[in-house]
Amino acid sequence: MTLLSVKRTRTLGPPSRALRYLPISALVLDLAIMSGVFVLAALGRNRLSVFDTAADVSDTIQVIGPLVLLAWLLVIAVFGGYRDDVFGAGTDEYKRVFNASLVTAGLLGVGCYLAKFQLSRGFFLLAFGLGIPALLIGRWVLRQAVHRARRQGKLQYRVLIAGSPSHVDEIAAVLHREAWLGYHVSGALVPASELCEQTASGIPVIGACEQATSVITASDADLVFFAGGALTSAGQLRRIVWDLEKADVQVVVAPSVTDVSGERIKVRPVGGLPLMHIDPPRSTDAARWGKRLFDLVGSTALIVAFAPLMAYAALRVKLADRGPVLFKQTRTGRDGEHFGCFKFRTMVVDAEARLAELYAQTGHEAGLFKMADDPRVTKPGKWLRRYSIDELPQLFNVWRGEMSLVGPRPPLPREVASYEADVLRRLRVRPGMTGLWQVSGRSDLSWAEAVRLDLYYVDNWSMLQDLSILGRTVGAVFGSRGAY
Length: 484
Hints:
The chain has 16 helices and eleven strands.
């Protein structure tokens, strides 16, 4: 146990002091938004004839306005809208603010009725009609600022992970990938039989799981994740939670489940035992008529909207070398069916013949081939690729039902031939013009990361996710990150 005695004396570094100011920042932001909304509601009621005639409600608002504002903030606090654990991730923060706002509106309406207080109906509607969306937008802006700060290494939680070395590395990889969560993994606890200096991914081992309480307390951690292999019984975890009751350390149990969306997970306690129910994958939902109708309407609208741009792109390609405008390549679609995928030609005419030579030069073996400075790309091709204009003809593939607006990228048949069994799940849905890989880095991603994102999309499909990806695609295209 020499390793344990040495490691336990080390701390994880000073805490991020700014974390304690997040609730205060949210409170100040809500106060500023509500004050502005109340001023706008009063001005709007004074100048607009909403119900009968325009009226001056300034005197009334000066009396009841501060009381309503204070009550609104108080109800949000009661609903947990300023708790430390609601900031940064999930929809819980928005739900709490929204529900608290509705309750405030209801209490105000009932209170004015019972007290026979003549509150302007126009002011009431404007205050809550503008205030609720404004509060939600304000929280969203605050969240984006928090995410940006965390990606820069600020607002970090000091995290320990307890479990077998393989489970520790698995959880740490997810937390490192999702840097916006602000979880900085500073150390690991492993079973005494597997004590070592560090895990395979380089996380320092600071102690043994059997002495978790003392090691966690000495390390000054903010959170501790218990992964597979950390505990020998449920009673052990219960005792650890009791021992950490006054240590201000949050305990998180990380099950051996990754890449499953929150919509597919339901936790139902039964007899004090929290059971995690995981809904089946949603790949079949992505093939139903609703998504197909969305693709048909969307592709038609986009073809009409981008017709002038496509005409200009076709002219640029034709004038460059007098070669063909379109490049039609055989790709693999849903359930392994082949189809001709359209693109504006961005390479020299004999690009396919020169592919084997580039494979040998770069050492490419499997997956989608991408090269940052591909010598086969023409001058107009660089411009077309930079803004993904070369892929606009694929709108006709979407219209014909061979592709979708959102989905995994359509692979080449030779790529599919080298797929492992798990990767074949990418073919359960129609391939897409854009997808999670494109809005997450495009060609800058490794093959393994691109596959992970595609499989996540297939198993966790939803229409809201499609709309989110389409919105993020605009930023990814204009930012040109990973496009070559």
